[in-house]
């Protein structure tokens, strides 16, 4: 009697190429996979770990996320507002509009303070970028950009230049001259080139480098003189809407937030994504570092602002109320980090006690969405820009 | 860039990122929250928006009327 070995061959659609072929039954990571011999060879050539389909990747991703949450939860032994119970509550808050800057012909989208604590640059939907003196409300410079929706603008640390960009996919730097009659547009220097709109830009500690974020899902670091790309940061899976650099004492990192609901912390030198947080339920519109550099806040379309602690690697506070249903477009901290100013799409600015998690004040005044909120460098006032074409200085 | 990537590439990117992050060192919230509170307390004394600025020193006070002599 001879042994009869039967080789059973299954015939059917391949999991990979969907063609009807003789299939090789492979078990990869304890899961039966049916690939035709051609696909098995292709897989080997592509150098993929065997058995990587979208489903297996997703499953692994989910299990890692669960593990990450577990690790983070182990250290979640107390809430921030519990630790803050012993701290005195803040007194009555009285803040009012001290200056109204009128002059933009359309929605104000972004603004930035100069380090001299007095000048402000603002950009608007109509393509105009204006430099104001906040004490006197005079306009010092005005530039017309070749594109509309100038969503990003920033003042150089020296106060001698401004950077701006938007739907033109570029970030351009305009040196400011003392001669008011000089045509600023002539001296424009295009620094950054993205493949989609520019959502945010910021100078690093010097006038020589600019960090940009874009609707194309990336952030990038550029050299201003040469326009060269120094480092690019990939990791977001959708538009990046905002970025903020760590305060200079704490090192070379920055945080970015975007439409993928994630906030990522990056190392500027290596281009690596160091930490990432995904607890918001909708687009993150704005991110801002805490003055000490150990935490950052985010404002999102889910109507909440949240505080994330970098050393504890988790979200430690949510600033929300049932009565607030409109998204927060912009956030900033006061000098000590005790107050969080947040501008919302319901035309108001809410002031939150960062440590206790309670709302300290609501500021009314704008007649349309508040698009940007920034505290002045010396902390004496903050400025808000809105879709009602004006900027207001509150103190 | 993110818009051009296939779903599979995006998932791979996220997976690599998660694998790195699981290895990060973390500190307990009780410690970090306390440090944040202490930092704020120390800085609050100098925060103009909290302690207030006397009207005569506030550069943003209402502009006074003109006096013509």
From TrEMBL, chain A:
One Gene Ontology biological process? signal transduction
Q: Which domain of life is it from?
A: Eukaryota
InterPro entries xrefs:
G-protein_beta_1-5, WD40/YVTN_repeat-like_dom_sf, WD40_G-protein_beta-like, WD40_PAC1, WD40_repeat_CS, WD40_repeat_dom_sf, WD40_rpt
Q: Which residues form a coiled coil?
A: 54-81
What keywords are assigned to this protein? Coiled coil, Repeat, Transducer, WD repeat
* WD repeats, residue ranges: 101-142, 191-232, 233-276, 277-318, 330-362, 363-395
Quaternary structure note: May interact with RGS9; this interaction stabilizes both proteins and increases RGS9 GTPase-activating protein (GAP) activity, hence accelerating the deactivation of D(2) dopamine receptor-mediated signaling.
User: Can you tell me which family this protein belongs to?
Assistant: Belongs to the WD repeat G protein beta family.
This chain belongs to the protein called: Guanine nucleotide binding protein (G protein), beta 5b
Q: Which organism is it from?
A: Cyprinus carpio carpio
UniProtKB/TrEMBL annotation, chain B:
Q: Where is the composition biased (Basic and acidic residues)?
A: 53-69
Q: Cite a GO CC annotation.
A: heterotrimeric G-protein complex
Q: Provide the GO biological process annotations.
A: G protein-coupled receptor signaling pathway
Identify its membrane topology class: Lipid-anchor
Keywords (A to Z) from UniProt: Cell membrane, Coiled coil, Lipoprotein, Membrane, Methylation, Prenylation, Transducer
Complexes and interactors: G proteins are composed of 3 units; alpha, beta and gamma.
Job description of the protein? Guanine nucleotide-binding proteins (G proteins) are involved as a modulator or transducer in various transmembrane signaling systems. The beta and gamma chains are required for the GTPase activity, for replacement of GDP by GTP, and for G protein-effector interaction.
Annotated protein name in UniProt? Guanine nucleotide-binding protein subunit gamma
According to its UniProt entry, this protein's organism is Cyprinus carpio
Q: What is the lineage of its organism?
A: Eukaryota, Metazoa, Chordata, Craniata, Vertebrata
């Amino acid at each position: 009697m001879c042994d009869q070995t039967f080789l059973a061959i299954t015939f059917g659609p391949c999991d990979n190429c969907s063609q009807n072929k003789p299939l090789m039954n492979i078990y990869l990571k304890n899961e039966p996979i049916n690939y035709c011999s051609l696909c098995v060879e292709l897989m080997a050539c592509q150098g993929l770990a065997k058995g990587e389909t979208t489903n297996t990747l997703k499953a692994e991703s989910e299990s890692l996320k669960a593990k990450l949450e577990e690790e983070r939860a182990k250290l979640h032994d107390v809430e921030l507002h519990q630790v803050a119970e012993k701290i005195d509550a803040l007194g009555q808050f009285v803040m009012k509009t001290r200056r109204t800057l009128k002059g933009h012909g359309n929605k104000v989208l972004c603004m930035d303070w100069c380090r001299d604590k007095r000048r402000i640059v603002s950009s608007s939907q109509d393509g105009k970028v204006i430099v104001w003196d906040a004490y006197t409300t005079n306009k010092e410079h005005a530039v017309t950009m070749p594109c509309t929706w100038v969503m990003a603008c920033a003042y150089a640390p020296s106060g001698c230049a401004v950077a701006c960009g938007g739907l033109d996919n570029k970030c351009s730097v305009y040196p400011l001259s003392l001669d008011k009659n000089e045509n600023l547009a002539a001296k424009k220097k295009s620094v950054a080139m993205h493949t989609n709109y520019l959502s945010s830009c910021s100078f690093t500690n010097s006038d020589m480098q600019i960090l940009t974020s874009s609707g194309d899902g990336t952030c990038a670091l550029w050299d201003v003189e040469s326009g060269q790309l120094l480092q690019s940061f990939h990791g977001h899976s959708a538009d990046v809407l905002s970025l903020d650099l760590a305060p200079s004492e704490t090192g070379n990192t920055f945080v970015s937030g975007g439409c993928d609901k994630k906030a990522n912390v990056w190392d500027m030198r290596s281009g690596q994504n160091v930490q990432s947080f995904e607890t918001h339920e909708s687009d993150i519109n704005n991110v801002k570092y805490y003055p000490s550099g150990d935490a950052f806040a985010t404002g999102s379309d889910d109507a909440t602002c949240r505080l994330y602690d970098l050393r504890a690697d988790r979200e430690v506070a949510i600033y929300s109320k049932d009565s607030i249903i409109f998204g927060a477009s912009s956030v900033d901290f006061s000098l000590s980090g005790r107050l969080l100013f947040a501008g919302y799409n319901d035309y108001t600015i809410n002031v939150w006690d960062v440590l206790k998690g309670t709302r300290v004040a609501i500021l009314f005044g704008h007649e349309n969405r508040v698009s940007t909120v920034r505290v002045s460098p010396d902390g004496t006032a903050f400025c808000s820009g809105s879709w009602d074409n004006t900027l207001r200085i509150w103190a | 860039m993110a818009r051009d990537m296939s779903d599979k590439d995006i998932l791979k990117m996220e997976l690599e990122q998660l694998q790195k992050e699981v290895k990060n060192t973390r500190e307990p919230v009780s410690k970090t929250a306390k440090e944040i509170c202490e930092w704020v307390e120390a800085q609050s004394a100098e925060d103009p928006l909290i302690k207030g600025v006397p009207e005569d020193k506030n550069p943003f006070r209402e502009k006074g009327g003109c006096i013509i002599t």
